[in-house]
Amino acid sequence: MTATFEHSRPSACPACSAAPAAEELAGKPVDATLMLSLPGIHCAGCISGVERALTALPGVRDARVNLTLRRAAVEAGPEVTAEALCEVLERAGYEAHELDPGVLATTAADRQGRDLLMRLAVAFFAMMNVMLLSVAVWSGAEGVTRDMMHWISALIAIPAVVFAGRPFYVSAWSALRARRLNMDVPITLAIALAMGTSLYETILSGHHAYFDAAVMLCFFLLGGRYLDHRTRASARSAAQELAALEVPRALRVSAAGEETVSVAELRAGDIVRVKPGGRIPVDGRVIAGQSEIDRSLMTGESLPAFAGENSMVSAGEVNLTGPLTVEVMAAGQDTALHRIADLVAVAEAGRNNYTSLADQAAKLYAPGVHILSFVSAVGWYLYTQDLRVALNIAAAVLIITCPCALGLAVPAVTTAASGRLFRKGLLIKDGTALERLAEADTVVFDKTGTLTNGAPTPRELDRLPEEAARVALALARGSSHPLAESLARGLAARGLRPAHVEGLREVPGFGVEGTWRGARVQLGRAAWVGAEAPAETATFLRIGDGAPRAIAFSDTLREGAEDVVQALKAQGKRVILLSGDTQAAVTRFAARIGIDEVIAEALPQEKAALVADLSAEGARVLMVGDGLNDTAALAAAHVSISPASALDAARTASDMVLTGRSLAPIADAMRTSVSARARIRENFTIATVYNVLAVPLAVAGLCSPLIAALAMSMSSITVSLNALRLK
Fold first, then answer.
1. Residue 406 located in a structural domain
2. What is the average pLDDT score of the chain?
3. What pLDDT, on the 0 to 100 scale, is given for residue 40?
4. Are 593 and 561 in contact (CB under 8 A)?
5. DSSP 558-593
């Protein structure tokens, strides 16, 4: 009995108790987190559709979609592959690409924004309470009562100012350590001098203390800082987005067979196999197989390209129809895709050198304020031999010249303009984007996916006889080629039923064929069916020995494309069409939309180089693009815009993103940016006039620090009201 009891008693040792559970867990496979890019999602319905499709797949534990980043994080067992997830989503109608989670930076919460908001709330609380206490002093409180009110104000204001003003102190100290001045140096001095003078007056039972002025300074300045923060994007680097698009794994072929390895392990001379629908992981040469390659992300070409033996392929391209065996020529950091990421990183760093109007004002403003305050203090001390009077006047000068109005001049306008443009369908990501947009005189448009919807649709299907259309529908449904899928949707929309085609099979790189009523039927490339290739995008249908029928495709114009081109030209802007598509297709499209300057067949590096050349000639370039091949040019431009449907990397590299399908907000943004710049200059003028009128009063000793704080508040409110005129 005792033995039984001892055996059943729980162990007193936690490690011993946990050991069996640990062994059980160790034997279980660990779930992996797979990251997918979903460039086509745009609404809550897409989120539920994607999550429903993913969670229905056996082995998937959880799926969460982030609409802002257009990504899905999938928790799944080791038996689930990213390829399988992408296939499921493609069948559900969603474009999906695997991302390498190891390359992506972790998205931290908006800590800076929350921190500023918290400090703003503390400053507001302190300001309201200290001003309530000041009412008693202003009402004539004397002696012990006045001193008590001052000490209570000090107990509230000192910790509040120390905590709330920390962003200014850190910035000012960093500037002084680097032996330079910025706007936060006079702010810090004004706050410190106001607090020091007030504490000195309180200790000596003086009649006036200015704790309310100090906390008021903190509140208004933090308000401007928070508005400025709200207008700036906390997005990742576009270079990281590009790097994450690189395929993290590849199927390597060796004497021992096939094995899945990290792309980082591949070396020149290795052999990899790329399945249909897969993204090519390396730059290389095709040594076996035939297929068609979707190069739209890399080159902007709307028509898939044939790939056979000795064809060159690049990392990031998509293999469409047949398996390919590729000899590795470059992998990892040596691929063309990675070189584009490097171009983007360099371009982003160069654009960060832009000097905003606020920065230009700070360079002139900060030294002048310090000199004026110092000269006032020395002059009054020499005149009165009273250090107390000299410090009060120095504090008044610093407070009255404190750059609250200047600090609000830009963010108040930018916030008002951002709200206006967001309601019209344009999201501003960068705080200086509006200033740069107002300077733009040259607009460079990408074609495919930007001025067009990026999805070729069949034309004049009503001219196709019903029987031929039914055969074409049956063949198109047997192929995963983009043109075949588009044709199938177009014919199905007519209410047709597919013909009974037997022996349906896809011929990689050429098309799809079968047998109908004993005759061979084909749908595919011109040369394969015995037709002459046209200058436009087309597929060909051949039934038996009959003549091939061309089914032409055209990319539909994006909403507002023609109007925005005409509006920009009316504003006097130079408009250029820059595309990786063929010369004939680009020239024909440019004539249709009304663009005179055309550059076709441009590679990603050439697009970035063209933008750089235009900039070197003195042009201020606005680049509008959506694809991987546009990303380096977007980053290199003076200012850039991408549609919401653009690739993650393109949206991240852009300063602004269109939230809807229409391009119309671009022309309105150009007009708004010019108005915003005018408002910013007006605000600087208001702040300057205010200083010209108020500073002599402070220097003459006619303003106490409290009156100076009230005057400063009035200038800040005036600047904010002027900014609201943009709405």
1. yes
2. 78
3. 67
4. yes
5. PTTHHHHHHHHHHTT-EEEEE-SS-HHHHHHHHHHH
Q: How far apart are CA 113 and CA 121, in angstroms?
A: 12
The SS3 assignment for 262 reads: strand
Domain shared by 224 and 123, yes or no:
yes
pTM of the model: 0.58
Give the C-alpha separation, 317 to 284, whole Å. 11
Is 449 within a domain? no
d(C-alpha 646, C-alpha 628), whole Å: 9
- Residue pLDDT, tens place only, 35-76: 887 876 766 667 878 888 898 888 898 888 876 567 788 888
Q: What is the pLDDT of residue 12?
A: 40
Catalytic residue (choose from 446, 581, 626, 630): 446
Q: Which of 99, 132, 155 is the last residue of a domain?
A: 99
Helices 166-177 and 211-230: crossing angle in degrees, nearest 10, is: 80
The structural domain count of the chain equals: 5
Q: Are residues 115 and 219 in the same domain?
A: yes
Contact 80, 683 (CB under 8 A): no
CATH of the domain at 592: 3.40.50.1000
φ/ψ of 350, rounded to 5, equals -65, -40
Decide if 31 is catalytic: no
The whole-number pLDDT of residue 1 equals: 36
Torsion over CA: 494, 495, 500, 506 (sign) = positive
Q: Are 705 and 392 in contact (CB under 8 A)?
A: yes
Residue 657 sits in the same domain as residue 601:
yes
Distance CA 170, CA 177 (A): 11
3-state secondary structure 149-180: HHHHHHHHHHHHHHHHCHHHHHHHHHHHHCCC
Q: What is the CA radius of gyration of the chain?
A: 33
Q: What is the CATH number of the domain that holds 89?
A: 3.30.70.100
